[in-house]
Design a protein that fits this description.
One of its GO terms (molecular function) is carboxy-lyase activity. The chain has helices at about 35-45, 65-75, 90, 115-125, 130-135, 145-155, 175-180, 210-225, 240-250, 255-270; strands spanning about 5-10, 50-55, 80, 105-110, 140, 160-165, 190-195, 230. By secondary structure, the chain is α/β, with parallel strands linked by helices. The chain is globular.
Amino acid sequence: MNTPIVDAQVHVWKASSPDRPWPDDAIAPQREIPLEIPELSQHMQKAGVTAALLLGPTWEGARNDYVLAAAASEPGRYGALCRFPTGDPAAVEQLAGWRSRTGALGIRMSLNRGDVRGTLAAAISSGFFAAAAAHHIPLSIYAPGRYWLYEHLVQHYPDLKITVDHAGVETRTESLLTAIEPLLALAKYPGIAVKASALPCFVSEGYPFPSIVDAVYWLVAAFGAERVFWGSDLSRLPIPYSQLVDVFLYHTDELSQAERRLVLGGALLEWLDWRGVTSAE
């Protein structure tokens, strides 16, 4: 491929320390040893991945320092998907210049546990969603199963750009195709895109993962390849990183070459207006 392969989501973090403590109520991390930039870089080089969108995990707290530092040091290799105090009106007032920081490409909301409706109401009341739309800040929202939430947002804020993280799936209690089917109804809204990320976490089959391939075909048919983004969620990926890349590169025969380029990175770069990423080939 002559276009970059870009991972739409990788959690990176550091161990809790006196200088950088985790919250007292932090959930258990996905793995005992933190996934830091040097290790990620090795995985990317081995798998042929050009760039990655970085996100601090919830167990580390609402921190952006590590991902922003990586993005600032290598903006053609790393971008930052940041946490934000969405219910704070004073913080919302600063969104006008938010994307002026090198590598700050979007904001992530995790709405898969706790008082989801309360968090959503606070973000609406603070003016967060209106400001994100006005200042063209893409949002990446993980609200598995809450299709009403995505629809509510795009109907009330039609200029918002929202990515549905992990195709809106959280567990493997049902088949992957059954799990993503309700998501397809949101494709009619041009402001909604979807991450085809962490998908091996939701299947019990082996390589070359036919249900993952079929899910990608369904998503591309509904949303178009320009709104489907490949991603790994590497820190909990149950298969080798290079194997996941291989599945999308060599086992998606029903995608055209142009569609495959978009899904593997081109579409994400355009969606986020992420400039300066070039193929290593």
